[in-house]
Amino acid sequence: MFRRQFLAVSSPRLTAALVFAFAVSACDGSRELMAPRTDGPSFSIQDAVHEGGNRHLFWLPPMVPAPGSFNGPFDASQSPVVEICEWTGMSCVTPLLASFTMDTGPGSETVRVVSVDEHYIVNWHTDQWELDATKTYRIRALIDGEELGHADVDLVNGGKELRNVNTNEYVALKNGRTLPIKFRIEEGALPEGFGLVAFDRGVGGSDRDVFVLDSRTQIVTRLTQNPATDVKPVFSPDGQWVVFASNRTGGWELYRTLTDGSGSLQKLTPGTQGDATGITGIDWNPDGSTIIFSARVSNIWRLFEMPSSGGTPTQLLSTTFGGANMDVQFAQYSRDGVKIYHHRTTPFNASNSDIYSADADGSNEVKLTSLPGRGAGFPTEIFVNGVAKVVYTEWNPSAGGSSHQVIMNTDGSSPVAITAEDGVSEHDAVGPAGNISASLEGIVIITRQASGLPDLIMLGSDGTVLMDPVIADAFAADWWIP
């Protein structure tokens, strides 16, 4: 059942986005790695030519010099909006100065499409506003509320001042003149994408850091930059936060940071769960209230629960089951937060491990698999045709750690292998969270390491490879859809 094809969905734009993402991943191994954002004013021009912006949006003369070439066919079918605001260097001042649509605008000016010249245009008559030459104004091009690009305008009072404007940051404009705002939108300017993917990646030696991929733009934002090891990132249910494990203070602790990379890092665990020598299996309750994670304390992996805002963790499950000492790892909440799926194993014996489930409070624990001489871990719940299923990793210790993906009912019945046991290491399956469209139900992202560095790949519930890679050189993903 291990097949390779692109995702078949009802939305042509989503299909195009996935094909585009695959093409970028396969043909261009580079990625834009953005350092954590720092405070301070930001002025810029952003489009396909400037600052690595949307590759299908071009500002045109007289705003900027003519681009040397374009990246795709002109799209005359859009209904863009042009907004102009006073720009503080951090945000727009409200109310907006002006908003132009295809139907309305100040002074009867509207956005128009000029198909023969392959651009959109609206005239900004600056003499209709009392503008301040000491302030900066931002022009934004949007579709359906999504910004495609922007250009900051520096007003000057005379021609001599025009020569002093930094044209990489500003459009120079003499106050009182009319600025023809011309821009080109190409097909693919607004790929629908498949949300945000958090992952960790090695960046030299034993150092690992946390990153987030925005599938709409293919921009990767680096959330941490520390000589320690930061791993296992997980989104909050609203997508605003990313929680991860780090040994930056010596022992392993949980931290959180904003998904967009702004703000400061927050430490969540006070260390009172003991001197943890490892943390894994982090998950956030869908109702946002609690976080669960496994920490290795006194050579036993124990499952802890704590408030999502931080605090003292409490042990959730016993480290014994059926009279035997058993590690507890890789715990994940069910989509409704009612159950916890997890893995238990005899300490230091990966060939004796199975998948279990329990109520979210730790009660009513049951064993779902029985795999003597083999192992199972990394369970995640997905929905296939409206029915909850559990995808997990099964491995064969006698075959050098070869592992593959299996799907089963939530009671452990009817397990079916969906990828082949072919000597490749596969693990850390994760289903989508957030605003999940019908086209993304039943899909998982897993870590797959055929040789060399691991990659994230996307699978359908029958093992069909939908995207390979989602992103290269990445590990332990979480997936959230805005």
Describe it.
The protein is mainly β. The chain folds into 2 domains: 144 residues, no CATH class; 286 residues, TolB, C-terminal domain (Neuraminidase). The protein is 4% helix and 45% strand. It has 2 helices and 38 strands. A 6-stranded mixed sheet has the order 1-14-13-12-38-34, with no helix packed on it. Strands 2, 4, 5, 8, 9 and 10 form a 6-stranded mixed sheet that branches. It has a 4-stranded antiparallel sheet with strand order 3-11-7-6, with no helix packed on it. The longest helix is centred in the N-terminal third of the chain and has 16 residues. The radius of gyration is 26 Å and the shape is elongated. The two termini are 31 Å apart.
Q: Tags for this entry?
A:
482 residues; mainly beta; Neuraminidase; six-stranded mixed β-sheet; 38 strands; 4% helix; elongated; disordered N terminus
Portion of residues within helices? under 10%
Distance between the termini: 31 Å
Structural class by sheet pairing and helices: mainly beta
Query: Which parts are unreliable, with pLDDT below 50 for 5 consecutive residues or more?
Result: 1-40
